[in-house]
Amino acid sequence: MAFWIASSPHNHNHTKTPNLMRLVILATLPGVLAQWYFFGWGNLIHIGLAMATALICEFIVLSLRKKPIAHQLLDGSGLLTALLLGICLPALAPWWISVVGTAFAIIIVKQLYGGLGHNPFNPAMAGYVMLLVSFPIQMTLWQPPLSLLAIDLTFSNTLTTIFTGFTVEGYSVEQVRSSIDGITMATPLDTLKTNISQGFTVIESIKNPVFGDNFSLGWEWINAGFLLGGLFLLAKKAIAWQTPISFLLSIFVCSFIGYSFAPDANPSTMFHWFTGATMLGAFFILTDPVTGATSNKGRLVVGALAGLLIYLIRTFGGYPDGVAFAILLCNMSAPLIDQYTRPRTYGHEKGE
Amino acid sequence: MNILLAILVLGGIAAVFGALLGYASIRFKVDGDPIVEQLDALLPQTQCGQCGYPGCKPYAQAVADGEAINKCAPGGEDTIKKIADLMGVEVQPLDESHVKGDTAESNRPKVAFIIEEDCIGCTKCIQACPVDAIIGAAKQMHTIIIDECTGCDLCVAPCPVDCIEMREIPETIHNWQWDLKTIPVKQVN
Amino acid sequence: MESVIERISRGQFWDFHGGIHPPEQKTLTSTKPIKQLALPKQLIIPLQQHIGLEGDILVSIGEHVLKGQPLTASTNPMEVPIHAPTSGTISAIKMSVIAHPSGLEQLCIFLDVDGLDTWRKRNVCPDLSLLTNHQIIEKIADSGIAGMGGAGFPTHIKASSKPDINFLIINGAECEPYITSDDLLMMEQSIAIVDGIEILDRLLSPAFILIGIEDNKPKAIRALQQATKDNEKIKICVVPTKYPIGGEKQLIHTLTGKEVPAGQLPIHSGIVMHNVATCFAINEAVRHDTPLIRRVVTVTGQALNKPQNVWALLGTPINFLLEQCELEVIENVKQPVIMGGPMMGFSVSSEMVPIVKISNCILVPSKKEMPSAFEKESQEVECIRCGQCSDVCPSNLLPQELQWSAKAKDHPQLQKLNLSDCIECGACAYVCPSQIPLVHYYRVAKAEIREKHQLDLKAERAKVRFEARKLRLEKEKLARQEKNKKAAAARKAAMNKATPEATGAKSAVAAALARVKAKKAAQENPESAKTVDSAEASTTEVAKDQKSQVAAAIARAKAKKQQKEAASEQPKTSVSEKPDNITPTAQATDQKSKVAAAIARAKAKKQQKETASQSPASENGEKTNAEVKVAQETKKETVSKTEQKSEVTPSNSSIKEDAQTDDITSVQTQNNPDTSTAASQPNAVDKKAKIAAAIAKAKAKKKLKETNAAAETSTDKDNG
Predict the structure, then answer these.
(1) Between A53 and A177, residue with greater pLDDT
(2) Size of interface B-C (CB pairs under 8 A)
(3) Which of A332, B36, C274, C585 is deepest in the core (most CB within 10 A)?
(4) What pLDDT does C614 receive?
């Protein structure tokens, strides 16, 4: 009889990082489906492009770093990064946007810092911010929901628009983005920002068709989808509850204060919750364990900070949505927050 | 008049600060050279003299005075790194000329061992031991206090009958280091 | 204080941070009664089975011992004696693999069981009130009881009464999965356990006695409730099932809401905790005078056909237990055998590992039930900082940060993060999705920190000793100088007196000077002899002389080598623990041959000196030459003899012959049977001979060094 020697504990609960990643990917499905329903194939095509790029980039870097390729390539973290980036991109952005963004995210933000577990910044958000800063025109090619479009955006139309800039029939992106009235459309947040800066009130602004019947046509359902996925992750204990809860509460409180003081210049709390990338950020990006805070108290702080920053950027900043910037700022402060929110060890006085 | 005022004000400020600095230099005077103490604390205190100095403290003093930091063989790379950090200089590889014997063969600490039947009681090793870890008297068999031996190797050379050897401290369950790779896993059947 | 009791009586407890719920698997064994086993053929009883020190061995090989007879005696409170678990004969006392994760060997007593199981005389104590507390504690100490929950702390120390004990907590929360030994013991021996608790009550007189049991042991709870229904003082606390609630600190926190301050023992907070098995053993020892010689062991795991709890004698090799429980051996599969539970147990490296006082479980999992125990290499991937580990840590540590610092060997940071408060429960590694063996990293880091600390202490001591020595040398030097000064002054004064004494002294000095000169001349002579005309003889003589020295050196080296070889062979056959111990006969022959060699060498040297001093006269050149030759031949023979002895056949007679061919009387007396019968003489001769041999060696070494260069050419010639 031969003996096998190992260190205790000998048992394990069989959770594995790749499974965790796959679970998160799965949980984005409702949101992605809603996005597809309201905005067409664009994001799905970008997701596909981004995933392919992520795999290729990761393969190259891992082989250069002489790391076990099969093991790390399929751990799902690169795919998740690509997926999140693909979700965030404007649906009609040219194809190289997702390729450049993903390559930057994987090669520079993730692998050059040491790969999974060592990157200080969320790769998807860092990639997104890089794109937003470097290619502002392509990154604001937001398209209104399909129902408002004059041109029928089929799969083939979307595909050719992404790759050539023109639909099969020869319409340009700008033409595609125009509504039936011939006005170029933007996201609700963008529209609101422009309107308020031009002196319109919120009530006046939301008459714009992009806001739809509720808060923002299409976007509220996408956010609801991500909320659903996020609740699924919470139920599965795949993510910590502290971050999203404190984040959403923080946004709620900030926007409530704003709304109470100046309802004309500030949209409602629910508008903040259900537009832009709020829910995606809350449950899928801010909860990225690698770049977030590790202690529970730290997570509460990070969530609250992110909520505050997003509100400030949306209300006072130069960009309509601030999820990416807020998250990168939180990533930066996470180690410091961790430093100051260490729990009290059993048998020690506080602060000992 | 204005110029005079400015000169007076600036001069006054200068005088005040000068006085403050002067007072501070007396009040907070640093006694001695604490760097030597800090260096001495980093050295392994084997007192082996392999660095060419009679003991660890003299070498610490020498390093503080600009001697090369890579002469401590028992301390190895680790000590060199710490000294480099403290002195703010580059890490250097260990100066091999200061390594007596073959330190490369094993990293486990060693202690001297007297083969007692060979010992003639010459007391030469007692004189060589820097930490008085050998007991014995003339014409009496000597022995080593293992707990006090620093493994410095200095007693081996003086022995006229070659009865001192450096032995590795055997691994017991008390000093075992939780290295699972070293467990001999053998087929029992 | 009252509120604590109120809360307990309401069934409310505090909750500690973290904890996990691994699959319990307790039903494998909890439904079957504890089985009495047949006696194994041999028991291997390690001397040290607890935290502390080994006792002194009382028995010798071949001795017959009775069941319960002490095998070691303790002279120190931290020493705990061991006893013969059954009657039999001591067959060996030697190093053997013990129940320790390192798989290293320690001194064990091997007991060949005679199968009669005869008890030593026991003094059963019918009435405890006749005994003083001191006597009871002595009984506990003599029975060798050490904490049976896992740590193995000597029980008599924990049972000695101390003032102001608030809580005596009896730990029945067997929280590790699989293990049911305490559970079964509580079911079957609840009355004896309660009797043991009452003894502890008397010794410690605590304010409250709490028994903590997890709620997954309903039968044990009922049995204990039944047994304690007459004792109002004992409260049975049914705590929720959560790993590691059975940890000392965790159970204390759960029951009392108090935290044991870091670096302190519970006793400092007025709390004493004992395991239920320990209580049972205390009762056995005090009432029935039965030392700790057996314990309940859960032998479990799905690789066994008959997992069950057994009464195992201490020292039973685990292969006997595995046989009894019918282990399915699968060829070519490395089977993990874990001593202890799956969370904190360690895998054993040999099937001869014996059961000791702290072994509560032998776990033999099948690959299906515990695949991670079979994984060939670590499945570790990078930490993604998910923080699940810190969520489950019962000490509220930050395992992920500890892990980074442990990998970076950042010891100050580890200490800042309170690594020492880690109880190594394994909850963090259990939930880690990156499969990082966190506990292993902590153990390694802890060991490193401990060693670093010891090295620092040692360095500090070395420094102090070095400084002290420097001071002493300085003092001695001064003293010597002072003395010399005084002596010189005295001499001067004496000289000036010009008395007969003074002239005597002067002449003595002159004589000494003359002697020195003569010696110098003699030393210079051999070289001058080389240049003299009658060179041939003398040069060969010198060459031969050198050769003889080389031969002597070779002989010495060979002797050393043989000695080493003999030493390495010896431990296999002998029982001695020291590897460099040599059996008396071998030593004797060795010494004899050494003596012979040394004397031969000494003789050769003497003759050489004589030749040297005589050569200026250049008269007896040939004769001395011949003599040297004889001496050299002798040496050669000795060399060959020593060579022959590599077969370790004591060739006494040959040495004798050898010695007789020479006319060296001292050797004859040494080997003469007549003189050797005299009791005192051999000893003295031996010592003298030893010294002679050593001096000869020393001289040979010196000469060899000096003549090495010169000898090279001449010996080459000779060889040619």
Answers:
(1) A53
(2) 95
(3) C274
(4) 52
Query: Does B89 lie in the same domain as B63?
Result: yes
Query: Is residue B115 domain-shared with residue B142, that is, in the same domain?
Result: yes
Domains of chain A by residue range = 16-185, 187-340
Inter-chain CB proximity A12 and C372 less than 8 Å: yes
Cβ contact B188–A3 (<8 Å): yes
**Among A297-311, B49-63, C30-44, C566-580, whose mean pLDDT is lowest?**
C566-580
Closest by CA position to C327, among listed C297, C295, C366: C366
- B58 plus B93 within the same structural domain: yes
Establish if C448 touches chain B: CB-CB under 8 angstroms. Answer: yes
Interface residue B1 vs chain A (CB under 8 A): no
Q: Which of C446, C480, C497 is a domain's end point? A: C497
Residue C480 and residue C590 share a domain: no
Q: Which of B131, B150, B183 sits opposite C103 (nearest CB)?
A: B183
Cβ(C239)–Cβ(C257) under 8 Å?
no
Q: Tell me the residue range of the domain where B125 lies.
A: 110-168
**Cis-peptide, bond into residue C261, ω within 30° of zero:** no
Residues B93 and B135 in one domain: no
Q: Which residues of chain C have pLDDT under 70?
A: 1-2, 161, 376-378, 498-509, 520-720
Domain that residue C646 falls in: 532-566+583-719
Euclidean distance between CA atoms C552 and C548, whole angstroms:
6
**The predicted structure's pLDDT at residue A306:** 94
Q: Among candidates C140, C251, C416, which has minimal Cα distance to A348?
A: C416
| CATH for B139 | 3.30.70.20
pLDDT, residue C545, reads 56
pTM of the shown model: 0.74
pLDDT in tens, B21-48: 999 988 887 766 678 888 888 888 878 7
- Is the link from the previous residue into A136 a cis peptide, with omega within 30 of 0? no
Report yes or no: B104 at the A interface, CB cutoff 8 Å. no
The torsion angles phi and psi of A150, rounded to 5 degrees, stand at -80, -35
Q: How confident is the model at residue B69 (pLDDT cuts 50, 70, 90)?
A: confident
pLDDT, position C680? 46
Looking at CA atoms only, how far is residue C520 from chain B in angstroms? 23
B6 pLDDT higher than 90? yes
What is the nearest CA distance from B66 to chain C, expressed in angstroms? 23
Nearest residue on chain B to C594, alpha-carbon basis: B118
Task: Tell me whether residue B17 is in a domain.
Answer: no
Say yes or no: C702 contacts chain B, CB-CB below 8 A. yes
- Residue B131 touches chain C, beta carbons under 8 Å: yes
Asked if B180's CB is within 8 angstroms of A2's CB, the reply is: no
Beta bridge pairs of residue C299: C308, C362
CB proximity C661 to A under 8 Å? no
Contacts of C23 (CB under 8 A, 6+ apart): A11, C177
Phi-psi region of A312 (alpha: psi -120 to 50; beta: other; left: phi over 0): alpha
Q: Which of A157-161, B113-117, C456-460, C584-588 has the lowest mean pLDDT?
A: C584-588
Q: Which residues in chain B are closer than 8 Å to A9, comparing Cβ atoms?
A: none
Give the mean pLDDT of B95-120: 70
Classify residue C145: in a domain, yes or no: no
Task: Identify the CATH number of the domain in which residue C466 sits.
Answer: 1.10.1060
Asked if A5 lies within 8 A of B187 by C-beta distance, the reply is no
Residues B124 and B78 in one domain: no
